[in-house]
């Protein structure tokens, strides 16, 4: 391989949403121009929304192009063996000025059958929360399809769903089938399977600028929903200069790294690593080069980078596939 790989950053893919705001600019310094920007896709190979490298000698190349050229070196030997040349995860920041729609995502089998897609297991890290901000996650008590359908007909769905107040630093892990909505007043880092399949159940009867309501997917959702009460909140430790486990599932592993000083990393080349800087500033030192990062940055460490140093004072989400 002639090109020596290095920590990769990508141009954010900015998405206007009816519920979006301006915090991706004011909190995370994203280059938004709209007052309703709801999402910054940081790292994506979703068709039509493929990330483009923003730094270094590979600047301007797409993520899919460099994976095609260097699959083992970018993805890692184990990830390439399992997923081929697909990048299996999608990384986003979200700004909810208003409540998002109540929605659900199908599992792998259903998504494959209906959409030839992965399912959408995901996790949320709450980066910023207004006073009394909350999320909706699952049912308050075990329910069933009949009770759920009746609640839709009577417009009482919210009475069945669990409403949870949140604060910065809270983490929620949402397996496929979990009915959910991010509430107003939140900035969230989201890590998920590579999928854009969402079934919208209820949108608070909102209308867009043209007076149209958004499409709902009531029938598709019926067989996708887990009607049992679920526990989505994740406790985790915060030991300084350590990788503190938050989520370890078949689709991704996420650790919380409170960096204060230096950490030497030694990797085995089996998986890429992604860092999301959720607070502070840090640097990566690799082969006599230094790369600097700030809050809101997302960095892809190619699997070929086996030895490097993290340095600074920051809170970082560390994500890989184990």
UniProtKB/TrEMBL annotation:
Binding site for Zn(2+): 105, 122, 180
Cofactor: Zn(2+)
Entry superkingdom: Bacteria
InterPro entries found in the cross-reference section: Carb_Metab_Reg_Kinase/Isom (IPR051804), Man6P_isomerase_Firm_short (IPR014628), Mannose-6-P_Isomerase (IPR016305), MPI_cupin_dom (IPR049071), PMI_typeI_cat (IPR046457), RmlC-like_jellyroll (IPR014710), RmlC_Cupin_sf (IPR011051)
One term of GO molecular function: mannose-6-phosphate isomerase activity
Active site: 200
Keywords: Isomerase, Metal-binding, Zinc
Any Pfam family hit: PMI_typeI_cat
Cofactor binding, note field: Binds 1 zinc ion per subunit.
The name this protein goes by in its record: Phosphohexomutase
Organism (species): Flavobacterium hiemivividum
């Amino acid at each position: 391989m002639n090109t020596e790989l290095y920590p990769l950053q990508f141009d954010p893919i900015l998405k206007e949403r009816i519920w979006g705001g301006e915090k991706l600019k004011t909190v995370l310094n994203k280059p938004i121009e709209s007052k309703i920007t709801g999402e910054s896709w940081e790292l994506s190979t979703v068709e039509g929304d493929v990330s483009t490298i923003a730094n270094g000698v590979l600047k301007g190349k797409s993520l899919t192009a460099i994976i095609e050229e260097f699959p083992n070196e970018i993805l890692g030997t184990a990830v390439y063996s399992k997923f081929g040349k697909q990048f299996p995860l999608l990384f986003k920041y979200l700004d909810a000025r208003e409540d998002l729609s109540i929605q659900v995502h199908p599992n792998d089998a259903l998504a494959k059958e209906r959409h030839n897609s992965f399912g959408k297991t995901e996790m949320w890290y709450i980066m910023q929360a207004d006073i009394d901000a909350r999320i909706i996650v699952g049912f308050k008590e075990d329910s069933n399809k009949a009770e759920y359908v009746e609640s839709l007909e009577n417009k009482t769905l919210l009475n069945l769903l669990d409403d949870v107040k949140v604060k910065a630093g809270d983490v929620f892990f949402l397996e496929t089938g979990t009915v959910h909505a991010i509430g107003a007043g939140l900035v969230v880092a989201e890590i998920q399977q590579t999928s854009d399949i969402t079934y919208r159940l209820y949108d608070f009867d909102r209308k867009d600028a043209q007076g149209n309501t958004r499409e709902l997917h009531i029938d598709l959702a019926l067989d996708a929903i887990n009607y049992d009460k679920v526990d989505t909140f994740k406790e985790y430790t915060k030991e300084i200069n350590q990788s503190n486990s938050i989520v370890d599932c078949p689709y991704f592993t996420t650790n919380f790294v409170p960096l204060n000083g230096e950490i030497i990393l030694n990797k085995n080349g089996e998986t890429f690593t992604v860092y999301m800087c959720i607070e502070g500033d840090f640097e990566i030192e690799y082969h006599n080069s230094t790369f600097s990062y700030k809050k809101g940055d997302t960095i892809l460490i190619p699997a070929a980078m086996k030895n490097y140093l993290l340095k600074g004072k920051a809170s970082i989400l560390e994500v890989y596939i184990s």
